[in-house]
Amino acid sequence: MRDFGPDMWQVWPFTALRRRWFTLALCLVSIPGGPVVRTASADPSCGLEGWLTALNDSANSYVADLGTLKEHDSARQFRTEMERYERDHLLKQIHEADLGVNEKPLMDFISSRRHLLDLHQENWGEMAQRYGGDPRFGAQADSLSRYLTATPCDPTAPDHLNASDTPKDSLMARLTGGMQEISKIVTSMSQEETEPEPPVDPDNFDDFRPAGQKPARSTTSAMPLSPSGNVAFVLGMFTFITAIAVWIWMRCGIVQRRAIRYPCALPVVIFDGVLPVIGEVLDISQVGCKIESSHELQLRQRVRLTCGPVECKARVIWRNNHFLGLKFDRQLTEAELKGLLGPHAAQIAADRAEALAFGALAKEDDPPDDTGSGDPHPELAA
């Protein structure tokens, strides 16, 4: 006879026990923080991912536009994206993401883009084109694009890119500090109230009280008036120092405004970090100059001026459609002014002497007047 194994009533207890263990395991899995081993999160923040995408696109656009009319616009956009965040904030955000083995390739990507920007700022256009055209540069950009596409960003990650450098105390920390101050004040007041008073005899008071139990009479101690404690003296010193500081500040402004301005017509090269532009200096002084140029610059933007042998940094004070007013970061020396204006003044003197000689020659070639003599008219002489 065929054996069909054990009876169902014998197998049922083991099956039921197995089902209970399986149900318990599912419950443990569903509990947060249960005994399930979870992998560490290695996703970058959404802000870091957006910046990496924008940096990659701007770098690729700059490499593609090298040698074309769009090169300067692409370079400006590339520099803006590269300098959007500070280095310390970027490093903190990257370390916070816990990227593991992907951290070193990401740092290499950022370093290569920084090197490309340095080549552009040092006017190495051919080297930048050769560096951007390297197949490894493009493979690096493609690898980053594939990584960012396959890896979702972490929206709950802390934002260190836009964080301020000065940490602010939390609400609980400020409340705790306030409660500590209040408790100190209350404790000092309670100690003053609980100090024991000396015994008092209601009949004799102070006459027959022992010397050790006599209360000390309250005597007002004279407060010496010192220069540091005299309020009037402090206010006077503060007023005097403030007046001196205001006078020095106004005097420096007057000296700068009274600086002699020399009219001239000198060619100058204006470099704003991206594009060098040629302009013409109309007048110059030791503290600033006026330039004729249609280059669009923002107010208080810093530029570098190169005029002959003199090179200095300046910032834009005012501007309109045709002229720029700039103030030098340092005052020009007398030797630098002479080096700039000396050839110009010599050329003006030569032109003036040539004009006078031409006028004298023209006067000699004039025909004689009708009277035939060089004497003035009799009526005019009278």
TrEMBL record:
UniProt lists compositionally biased (Acidic residues) regions at 192-205
Please give one Gene Ontology molecular function term for this protein: cyclic-di-GMP binding
Q: Which residues form the PilZ domain?
A: 256-337
Regions crossing the membrane:
231-250
Name used for this protein in its record: PilZ domain-containing protein
**Start and end residues of each stretch annotated as Disordered:** 188-223, 360-382
Membrane in keyword set: yes
Spell out the Pfam families in the cross-references.
Answer: PilZ
SUPFAM superfamilies, A to Z: PilZ domain-like
Write down the InterPro entries for this protein, in alphabetical order: PilZ_domain
Keyword Phosphoprotein annotated: no
- Keyword entries, A-Z: Membrane, Transmembrane, Transmembrane helix
